[in-house]
Known about the structure:
Oligomer: single chain
Protein name: Cysteine proteinase
Distance between the termini: 21 Å
Shape: globular
GO molecular function: cysteine-type deubiquitinase activity
Structural class: alpha+beta
Number of strands: 18
CATH architecture: Alpha-Beta Complex
Pfam family, one: UCH
CATH topology: Cathepsin B, Chain A
Organism: Fragilariopsis cylindrus CCMP1102
Number of domains: 1
Amino acid sequence: GVIGLRNLGNTCFLNSSLQCLSATIPLTDYFLGYDYRSEINKKNFLGTGGRLSTAYAELTKQMWLGSKSVVEPISFKKQLETFAPQFVGYHQHDAQELLAFLLDGIHEDLNRVKERPYIEDHDCDGSNNEEDAVENWKNYLRRNKSLIVDMFQGQIRNTCTCLTCGHVNIRFEPFMYLSLPITKTCKSIDGCMDLYLKEEKLEGADQYYCEKCKDHVDGTKKQDIWMLPPVLIVHLKRFKYNEYGKVGSKNDASIEHPVTDWDLKSRVKSSRGVYPTYDLYAVSNHMGGLSGGHYTAHTLNRFDDKWYEFNDRSYRSVDESIHKELFKSSYVLFYNR
């Protein structure tokens, strides 16, 4: 599992992401076995017919069972480009966007639901949050059931309140990762979490459409974490995008992150939820500016319990104190409970 990945030309974003996923033990164990083939859903038009998952499985085997010290992820990249033309060529890309596409693609490939039933989405009024959340999750699992859902997906509650009539609209939704905002006042990942969970006003161009008033009105929006997954992916929103969808600036703020025993009990609103503490096991880092930036990864090895730094083809063991140096570059963090 301690192996370098050759840079194929500005593919450090890919290499960093792959090292973090490789350190995700349940995912790696799954693909090192052969049971994934029996779960490939070739009928699912949202997937890739198993081609992306098979390419990822082959790469995982090269990284864990091969004899080379450096692996070339060229065949995996070719399959990725087939289904995600945005990654064609050798330009630098966003590691979080790559992770989102890859995990979603593997989920659709391995979705155990062969025939998806039509389920009408409905909003709630907040009178019975626990029952509504359970019902929403059951309905979601009737259409989406895979290793990816089991491992990475949790549930959030979105609450919109009309400031004209007081009507409350609640919607429960699944999430694959938490994208946390960063401001000048944020000093830690907990501070970013406070900002993410803070109530925001919906006014001006962002007005809320109230079903009761039948009009766009001022309102408030609040996000709450309802259920956390076994593996929690946290994305720090270091990049700001302009109106054309291009990266306009980067925030290099030092964001302190816990390495062990990150207690999220106070963050989970559901009374039926698991109140876990999380341990960090992988970080995708981005150093430098927008044009000349570079991605690396730091992961915890399951066999010797040591942290390793991966910089494309090169790697080395590092002390746990390295995390203090990563506070300015951490971009996507992987925690397990």
